[in-house]
Amino acid sequence: MKTAVLFCPSQVWGGIEKNVHLRAKLLGEDGVSVVVILLEGFFAERFADLPNVRVIEVASRGGDFNIFVVANYVKILREIAPDVVFAALKKDWWLVSLASKIAGVDRVVLYLGIARRVKSPIKYFVIFRLMKSVLMVNSDSLKYAMLKHSRFFDESNVYRVYNGFDAPPAETKPLDFKAMFNLPNDAVLVGCAGRFSPQKGFDLLPDVLAKLPEHVHVVHAGEGEFEETIKAAIQSRPESERIHFLGYHQDMPAFFGGIDIFLLCSRNEGMANVLNEAMSHGVPVVSTRVPGSEELLAHGEYGMLVDIDDVPAMAKAIRSIAEGERSFAPEKLERWIVDKFGLEKMMRETNRVFFPADRS
């Protein structure tokens, strides 16, 4: 039986963490023995019922160098002797690569979901050229961006694997937001989802609504460390009466079933999971021109793209969909996601990266 160790010691449950959960689940179902490394007290219960998956909780993830964290990681990896180690978060690349090298793990896969500056060239050189870790990214645009750093990357150590999504359940009961928030029958519901962070652009929502009719409302699902600050700024505006917060919501199919349009107003993203999810439910989307979104929407064929921070363009795009000037057939959106971003394709490509010796 193959063994994979997935490092995801995070205090926030977002797109990357969900993707680790999905990969752990599907690898386990495929007969791989999976060990997930989590921070103590964070999210272990979400992995509890997955087949062939067990969790090891660690007290600390360390920083650039923490000898105690490295020693603990080495001990864990020597006991497990995995075929592959996967680090989902950039903050863990260095210590996970170092510990894996000391423990004698040959295959180390590091994940990057969003473009980052190369702040420490020496560290990148050591990780990717000397330690021979490989990079997994979630879009072609991100792959090409990383390949520009030819001192560290080439076609042999950068792999693009699209995030995969399954078709939504056939029987999904949509959330009735109009009843939940006592909204008028003609209300247009614009959904947003994601952690509260300046990167996500949720501070722009009052400005967007100020340019739209009174019957347009926003429903947001998510939480995060900047929640208090961003909510306080939003609630100081009169448009806040039309912005409704759900907090963390587990049943996202019900969320997507209850909205009319999905808005991604991010300032920086990789391949945004929530866009894939919205489209898999046939929901029309408006997205800022972040690299992964342009690729996902085929540069406007499957949704409306606007410039980052362009509030008038966001409002105009929402209005054009709400008033029927632009339409996107639900079945066309669903087919695009299933064909291009299906789970089977994601796992086939993941296995090729994780277990290269199995390639035919």
Can you describe this structure?
With 360 residues, this protein is an alpha/beta fold. It folds into 2 domains: 3-164 and 342-358, Glycogen Phosphorylase B (Rossmann fold); 177-340, Glycogen Phosphorylase B (Rossmann fold, 3-Layer(aba) Sandwich), CATH 3.40.50.2000. The protein is 37% helix and 17% strand. It has 14 helices and 13 strands. The strands form 2 sheets. Strands 3-2-1-4-5-6-7 form a 7-stranded parallel β-sheet, sandwiched between helices. Strands 10-9-8-11-12-13 form a 6-stranded parallel β-sheet, with helices on both faces. The chain is elongated and about 60 Å long. Residues 27-110 form the Glycosyltransferase subfamily 4-like N-terminal domain.
> How large, in whole angstroms, is the Cα Rg?
21 Å
Number of strands: 13
The proportion of strand residues reads 15-25%
Number of domains: 2
Low-confidence stretches: none
Q: Could you say which structural class the secondary elements and strand pairing correspond to?
A: alpha/beta
Protein name: Glycosyltransferase
Keywords: Glycosyltransferase, Transferase
GO molecular function, one term: glycosyltransferase activity
Pfam families: Glyco_trans_1_4, Glyco_trans_4_2
Main features:
six-stranded parallel β-sheet; Rossmann fold; 2 domains; seven-stranded parallel β-sheet; 14 helices; 13 strands; 360 residues; alpha/beta
List the helices and strands and how they pair.
Blueprint: E1 3-7, H1 15-29, E2 33-39, E3 53-58, H2 67-80, E4 84-87, H3 93-103, E5 108-112, H4 121-130, E6 134-137, H5 140-147, E7 158-160, H6 177-180, E8 188-193, H7 205-210, E9 216-221, H8 227-235, E10 243-247, H9 252-257, E11 261-264, H10 273-280, E12 285-288, H11 291-296, E13 304-306, H12 311-322, H13 330-341, H14 343-354
Parallel strand pairs: 1-2, 1-4, 2-3, 4-5, 5-6, 6-7, 8-9, 8-11, 9-10, 11-12, 12-13
Helix pairs in contact: 2-3
